[in-house]
Task: structure prediction
Amino acid sequence: MSPVLELYERKFVVGPFQCNCRLLACPTTGEAVLVDAGDEAGKILKGLQGVEVAPGVPLQLKYLFHTHGHLDHIAATREVKKETGGTAKIALHKEDEPLYANLKMQGQMFGIRYDDPAPVDLYFEHEQTLKVGKLKFTIVHTPGHSPGSVCIRLHEDSQAGSKETLFSGDTLFQGSVGRTDLWGANQEQMFKNIKTRILTLDEDIRVCPGHGPDTRVGVEKRSNPFLT
Result:
Protein backbone atom coordinates (compact mmCIF):
# COMPACT_ATOMS: atom_id res chain seq x y z
CA MET A 1 0.00 0.00 0.00
CA SER A 2 1.36 3.43 -0.92
CA PRO A 3 1.89 5.96 1.88
CA VAL A 4 -0.79 8.51 2.68
CA LEU A 5 0.08 11.93 1.28
CA GLU A 6 0.15 15.09 3.33
CA LEU A 7 -2.23 17.11 1.17
CA TYR A 8 -1.88 20.87 0.85
CA GLU A 9 -5.41 22.23 1.10
CA ARG A 10 -7.01 25.63 1.41
CA LYS A 11 -10.65 26.70 1.35
CA PHE A 12 -12.05 29.98 0.05
CA VAL A 13 -15.70 30.73 0.86
CA VAL A 14 -16.78 32.98 -1.99
CA GLY A 15 -19.68 34.96 -3.40
CA PRO A 16 -23.19 35.79 -2.24
CA PHE A 17 -24.04 32.07 -2.13
CA GLN A 18 -20.99 31.27 0.04
CA CYS A 19 -19.58 28.55 -2.18
CA ASN A 20 -16.73 26.44 -0.82
CA CYS A 21 -13.90 26.78 -3.34
CA ARG A 22 -11.03 24.38 -2.57
CA LEU A 23 -7.37 24.47 -3.51
CA LEU A 24 -5.75 21.02 -3.44
CA ALA A 25 -2.08 20.54 -4.20
CA CYS A 26 0.45 17.75 -4.31
CA PRO A 27 3.17 18.56 -1.76
CA THR A 28 5.80 16.76 -3.81
CA THR A 29 5.32 18.39 -7.22
CA GLY A 30 3.29 21.52 -6.43
CA GLU A 31 0.71 20.58 -9.08
CA ALA A 32 -2.72 21.72 -7.97
CA VAL A 33 -6.41 21.78 -8.73
CA LEU A 34 -9.01 24.38 -7.82
CA VAL A 35 -12.47 22.95 -7.20
CA ASP A 36 -15.50 25.20 -7.88
CA ALA A 37 -14.09 28.67 -8.48
CA GLY A 38 -17.50 30.13 -7.80
CA ASP A 39 -16.97 33.88 -7.42
CA GLU A 40 -14.65 36.58 -6.09
CA ALA A 41 -11.79 35.84 -8.46
CA GLY A 42 -9.68 38.53 -6.78
CA LYS A 43 -9.98 36.83 -3.41
CA ILE A 44 -9.03 33.45 -4.90
CA LEU A 45 -6.10 34.88 -6.88
CA LYS A 46 -4.75 36.67 -3.82
CA GLY A 47 -4.86 33.33 -1.98
CA LEU A 48 -2.84 31.68 -4.76
CA GLN A 49 -0.10 34.30 -4.97
CA GLY A 50 3.33 33.17 -3.86
CA VAL A 51 2.07 29.90 -2.41
CA GLU A 52 4.66 27.23 -1.69
CA VAL A 53 2.94 23.92 -0.98
CA ALA A 54 6.16 22.75 0.69
CA PRO A 55 9.51 24.49 1.21
CA GLY A 56 10.85 25.32 -2.25
CA VAL A 57 7.85 23.79 -4.05
CA PRO A 58 5.81 26.51 -5.81
CA LEU A 59 2.16 26.09 -6.72
CA GLN A 60 1.35 25.04 -10.30
CA LEU A 61 -2.36 25.22 -11.10
CA LYS A 62 -3.15 22.39 -13.53
CA TYR A 63 -6.95 22.09 -13.42
CA LEU A 64 -10.10 24.01 -12.59
CA PHE A 65 -12.56 21.28 -11.57
CA HIS A 66 -16.30 21.91 -11.36
CA THR A 67 -18.81 19.75 -9.54
CA HIS A 68 -21.58 21.26 -11.69
CA GLY A 69 -22.48 24.25 -13.84
CA HIS A 70 -24.51 26.55 -11.59
CA LEU A 71 -23.32 30.15 -11.46
CA ASP A 72 -22.11 30.03 -7.86
CA HIS A 73 -19.64 27.27 -8.76
CA ILE A 74 -18.24 28.65 -12.04
CA ALA A 75 -18.35 32.46 -12.05
CA ALA A 76 -14.66 33.09 -11.24
CA THR A 77 -13.25 30.41 -13.51
CA ARG A 78 -12.57 32.56 -16.57
CA GLU A 79 -10.61 35.20 -14.64
CA VAL A 80 -8.71 32.71 -12.50
CA LYS A 81 -7.59 30.81 -15.60
CA LYS A 82 -6.53 33.99 -17.38
CA GLU A 83 -4.65 35.48 -14.43
CA THR A 84 -2.77 32.26 -13.64
CA GLY A 85 -1.25 31.98 -17.10
CA GLY A 86 -4.12 30.44 -19.04
CA THR A 87 -2.80 26.89 -18.92
CA ALA A 88 -5.07 25.35 -16.27
CA LYS A 89 -7.64 23.06 -17.88
CA ILE A 90 -11.31 23.76 -17.19
CA ALA A 91 -13.10 20.49 -16.40
CA LEU A 92 -16.86 19.84 -16.26
CA HIS A 93 -19.29 17.03 -17.07
CA LYS A 94 -20.70 17.52 -20.57
CA GLU A 95 -24.30 17.20 -19.34
CA ASP A 96 -23.84 20.52 -17.51
CA GLU A 97 -22.29 22.39 -20.41
CA PRO A 98 -25.62 24.08 -21.30
CA LEU A 99 -25.77 25.49 -17.76
CA TYR A 100 -22.13 26.53 -17.85
CA ALA A 101 -22.46 28.21 -21.25
CA ASN A 102 -25.43 30.23 -20.00
CA LEU A 103 -23.61 31.84 -17.09
CA LYS A 104 -24.70 35.32 -18.21
CA MET A 105 -28.36 34.27 -18.23
CA GLN A 106 -28.02 32.59 -14.83
CA GLY A 107 -26.58 35.81 -13.45
CA GLN A 108 -29.40 37.91 -14.89
CA MET A 109 -31.89 35.87 -12.87
CA PHE A 110 -30.21 37.15 -9.71
CA GLY A 111 -29.36 40.63 -10.96
CA ILE A 112 -25.64 39.79 -11.30
CA ARG A 113 -23.65 40.61 -14.41
CA TYR A 114 -21.11 38.09 -15.70
CA ASP A 115 -19.04 37.69 -18.85
CA ASP A 116 -19.34 34.56 -20.96
CA PRO A 117 -17.32 31.68 -19.48
CA ALA A 118 -14.10 30.36 -20.99
CA PRO A 119 -14.44 27.15 -23.03
CA VAL A 120 -14.38 23.77 -21.32
CA ASP A 121 -11.10 21.93 -21.92
CA LEU A 122 -11.94 18.54 -20.42
CA TYR A 123 -15.24 16.69 -20.03
CA PHE A 124 -15.58 14.52 -16.96
CA GLU A 125 -16.77 10.94 -17.35
CA HIS A 126 -18.06 8.59 -14.65
CA GLU A 127 -15.22 6.64 -13.00
CA GLN A 128 -12.61 8.65 -14.88
CA THR A 129 -9.29 8.87 -13.03
CA LEU A 130 -7.14 11.99 -13.10
CA LYS A 131 -3.68 12.57 -11.62
CA VAL A 132 -2.51 15.91 -10.28
CA GLY A 133 1.10 15.37 -9.31
CA LYS A 134 0.89 12.36 -7.02
CA LEU A 135 -2.74 13.05 -6.08
CA LYS A 136 -5.31 10.72 -7.59
CA PHE A 137 -8.91 11.76 -8.26
CA THR A 138 -11.87 9.69 -9.43
CA ILE A 139 -15.00 11.26 -10.93
CA VAL A 140 -18.36 10.00 -9.63
CA HIS A 141 -21.27 11.14 -11.81
CA THR A 142 -24.20 11.89 -9.50
CA PRO A 143 -26.89 13.59 -11.62
CA GLY A 144 -29.99 14.89 -9.87
CA HIS A 145 -29.22 18.37 -8.58
CA SER A 146 -28.22 19.03 -12.19
CA PRO A 147 -27.74 16.66 -15.15
CA GLY A 148 -23.96 16.83 -14.97
CA SER A 149 -23.42 16.98 -11.23
CA VAL A 150 -20.37 15.03 -10.12
CA CYS A 151 -18.64 14.21 -6.88
CA ILE A 152 -14.85 14.29 -6.98
CA ARG A 153 -13.14 11.59 -4.94
CA LEU A 154 -9.63 12.25 -3.70
CA HIS A 155 -7.73 9.13 -2.74
CA GLU A 156 -5.17 8.88 0.04
CA ASP A 157 -5.84 12.20 1.72
CA SER A 158 -4.55 12.48 5.27
CA GLN A 159 -6.56 15.57 6.17
CA ALA A 160 -8.86 15.43 9.20
CA GLY A 161 -7.85 11.85 9.96
CA SER A 162 -9.42 10.52 6.79
CA LYS A 163 -7.63 8.63 4.04
CA GLU A 164 -10.04 9.89 1.40
CA THR A 165 -12.22 12.90 0.69
CA LEU A 166 -15.30 13.32 -1.47
CA PHE A 167 -16.05 16.78 -2.83
CA SER A 168 -19.81 16.46 -3.14
CA GLY A 169 -20.77 19.76 -4.75
CA ASP A 170 -24.45 20.48 -4.17
CA THR A 171 -25.51 16.82 -4.11
CA LEU A 172 -24.91 16.04 -0.42
CA PHE A 173 -24.52 18.41 2.53
CA GLN A 174 -24.16 18.01 6.26
CA GLY A 175 -27.70 17.04 7.27
CA SER A 176 -29.21 17.92 3.90
CA VAL A 177 -29.22 17.25 0.16
CA GLY A 178 -29.25 19.30 -3.01
CA ARG A 179 -32.20 21.20 -4.40
CA THR A 180 -34.17 19.58 -7.20
CA ASP A 181 -36.42 22.47 -8.22
CA LEU A 182 -33.95 23.93 -10.73
CA TRP A 183 -33.58 23.35 -14.48
CA GLY A 184 -32.63 19.78 -15.34
CA ALA A 185 -32.93 18.55 -11.76
CA ASN A 186 -34.41 15.16 -10.92
CA GLN A 187 -35.18 14.29 -7.32
CA GLU A 188 -35.59 10.55 -7.81
CA GLN A 189 -32.33 10.36 -9.72
CA MET A 190 -30.44 12.36 -7.11
CA PHE A 191 -31.56 10.20 -4.19
CA LYS A 192 -30.75 7.05 -6.13
CA ASN A 193 -27.23 8.28 -6.86
CA ILE A 194 -26.62 9.41 -3.29
CA LYS A 195 -27.62 5.99 -1.99
CA THR A 196 -25.81 3.90 -4.61
CA ARG A 197 -22.73 6.00 -5.37
CA ILE A 198 -22.01 7.90 -2.15
CA LEU A 199 -23.45 6.05 0.84
CA THR A 200 -21.86 2.80 -0.37
CA LEU A 201 -18.40 4.31 0.15
CA ASP A 202 -16.34 3.82 3.30
CA GLU A 203 -18.06 5.51 6.23
CA ASP A 204 -14.87 7.29 7.30
CA ILE A 205 -14.54 9.22 4.06
CA ARG A 206 -14.62 12.96 4.63
CA VAL A 207 -17.35 14.75 2.65
CA CYS A 208 -16.69 18.35 1.61
CA PRO A 209 -19.90 19.94 0.27
CA GLY A 210 -20.18 22.94 -2.02
CA HIS A 211 -21.65 24.95 0.86
CA GLY A 212 -21.45 24.66 4.62
CA PRO A 213 -19.36 22.45 6.91
CA ASP A 214 -17.65 19.15 6.17
CA THR A 215 -19.10 15.83 7.28
CA ARG A 216 -18.48 12.10 6.77
CA VAL A 217 -20.21 9.44 4.74
CA GLY A 218 -21.15 7.42 7.84
CA VAL A 219 -22.60 10.43 9.63
CA GLU A 220 -24.91 11.23 6.71
CA LYS A 221 -25.80 7.58 6.23
CA ARG A 222 -26.97 7.31 9.86
CA SER A 223 -28.40 10.73 10.63
CA ASN A 224 -29.21 12.78 7.53
CA PRO A 225 -33.01 13.26 7.83
CA PHE A 226 -33.43 13.18 4.04
CA LEU A 227 -31.72 9.78 3.78
CA THR A 228 -32.83 7.83 6.85
Residues 37 and 46 are 13 Å apart (CA to CA). DSSP finds seven helices and 16 strands in the chain. The chain has a mean pLDDT of 94.
